[in-house]
Structures are given as structure tokens and as C-alpha cells.
Description:
It is built from 18 helices and nine strands. The chain has helices spanning 3-16, 31-35, 40-48, 69-72, 115-124, 156-159, 171-180, 185-193, 196-199, 212-224, 237-249, 251-261, 270-274, 287-300, 306-313, 318-330, 335-338, 341-349, and strands spanning 21-24, 57-61, 74-78, 83-87, 99-104, 126-127, 130-131, 135-142, 163-166. The strands form three sheets. A five-stranded parallel β-sheet has the order 2-5-8-1-9. Strands 3-4 form a two-stranded antiparallel sheet. Strands 6-7 form a two-stranded antiparallel ribbon. Helix 1 packs parallel to helix 3 (40-48), helix 7 (171-180) runs antiparallel to helix 8 (185-193) and helix 11 (237-249) packs across helix 12 (251-261).
Amino acid sequence: MGLTSEAIETTLDILFGGKIPLILGAPGSGKSMCLNPGGEVFNSLAAYEGVDPSEFGFCDLRPCFMDVSDYRGYPFPNKETKTTEWLVPEFLPRDPDSKGLLVIEEIMNAPRGHHHALYQLTQERRIGDYILPDGWYIAATGNRAEDGCGVGKLPTALVNRFITVEWTPDAKDWGVWASEHGVDYRVIAATRWHPDFIETFDGRISGPQSTGRSVAAFAQILERSNINPTRSDRSNQSQRIFRMAKGAIGEDDAGRMTGFLGLFSRLPDVDAIVNGVSETVDVPKEADVQIAVIAQLARMATPSNIGNILRWVSRATDTMKIIFATDLETVPAMALSRDTAEYRDWRIENSKLFE
Length: 355
């Protein structure tokens, strides 16, 4: 289990314990994604409540985009009772039988005037006459002062209403998520060689830099372009890759990303491995090239050639074997290849690696 997985586990422990987690971490590290519909925390809460995720409610509350009056709604006169009543904001859940998750996003950027409304919401689950239905959980996210996001300091009384969760990005966890969500396998391989693409954030940098979010954005641009890093005829492709990467992850990381992707045009004969003549293909000595080969082979695996591939992978280092198994077991398209006698026997033979 990586550091991000541990943070998700802790977040769920807090929610199941009836308390409110405050997830603090760098921008682009996946804090909101795990809470949004489809995220690990959201889906786990829905399963815990026995509700289909499509029917589990979600409310995105962003104080930094709101006026203080937005919480309580607007007053209107009741002529019969001669009292003032309040129009409840449309975005707040009202069905008393509903279940869901209310997320207070970017709470560290909330203007001071919003704090008092958040006091009541987080402590009493209400704002004025409005009451949050019992079936709803509350969570919050925020950046840290060192992240350079212009965050303020929350009052100690408000901080005391939360249980803080430190969100530390982990390249291995991101790689699993990325594989499951169709991120380009070559970009995922690059993060294995350069884990700091995912794990390191410097709040002193004013321009773009690599985060899980920006690396995924670059991968999407790469996928939708006509560039194929596996081609040996790269011509001006490296320059194009560098330019698009620079705008997403910054100049220094763009250089490293471009350099790694260039490895895919210089791989050993993967076709020979796939076709069963792997004894003619040496295992590269360079670790970065090994990672690229493993990523390429996992992508090429089919039920008919998985045995050939495994014979070559068995000659690689234990680390490469683990990476190959991770790729094969997290990419949905690889399901047929891993559901074969050859792969099951190989997994048993190397079971000590996966304990």
C-alpha cells in the first residue's frame, strides 16, 4: 500500500467513525478526485451505505466562490405568520431520506466571513434553519501554506472540528490509478523511472510543474496528437513532445519526460520476444530501458503470446517482474491475458515477490 492509499484508508476510517476529515496536500495530487463521484472514497461510502454510486448524492461546496448569504439562502416574508422565512439554497441536499457526501473544497482559501457558517455546519450539521440530512457525510480539502496557493489560516476553533489527513502523493498508487483510467502506458512508465513527477511539489515555482494532474493532462494531449514515441523515425517528434510537455509540467521535467519517451524508439526486438524467440533478446542493462520494455510488453500481451512474454520477463529483475504484474493486473484490457494458465502458473512460481 502506498502513501496515497494510506490517506484514503485513513479518510474512510474517519468518515465511518462519524467525524470530518480535512485532507491537506499539494495541488493536483488527487485529493478532490478521490472524493468526487467515481473516486475511491465516494464509491466506498456508497458501498458502505448499500447505495448504487449513481444514486449516492454529492454536494460540492466551495466557500471561495460564494457569498456568505449563499449558505442560509434569502429571506422572504410569510404574510400569514408575519415572520421571515428563508429560501434554502438549491445546492444543499434537502431530501431527509437521501444519502451522500458533502465536500467543502479549498477550505483554506475560504474568506473569513464564511468561517462562522462553517462552524455551525461542521459542528451541528446545520446552517440556520437548514439541517443536513442524517445520511450525508462531510469532508473537506485544502492546500498547505507551503504550496504557494495563497491560503489563509483557519481559526483554531474551526480546525478543531476536523481530523487532519496528510495527503502524500505516491507514484505507485498514481500508476495503478492511471492504468485503470487509460493514461498512456509510456507516460506511466516515465513516472516509474522519475517518481518525483508525481511525488514532488515545490510551492516556490510560479510556472507549471509536474503533478499527478498535470502529467495526466500531458498524457491526454500526447494521446490525441499524431505522435507515436515508439516509432524509430522520430524526426521532429521529440521537439513537439517537449513543447507540449513544457506547458504542462515545466521545462526541466519536460526534458526528462521527452528523454524517457525517446527510449521507446530504441527498444530491443520486442516482436521477437512476443513471437517466442526471446532467447535471442538480451535483458537491457539500463534500468530505464527495462522499464520501457516491460511497459511495451504488457501492452502487447494476448492470451496467445503471454507464455512467450513471461519466459523473457522471468529473466528480468524481480522489480521488473513486479512492474509487469502490476501492469497486467490493473489494465482492464489485459484481463484475458492474465486469466490464462501460463500467467497463473507464473504468478504462483513468483508468489514470494507479491507477499
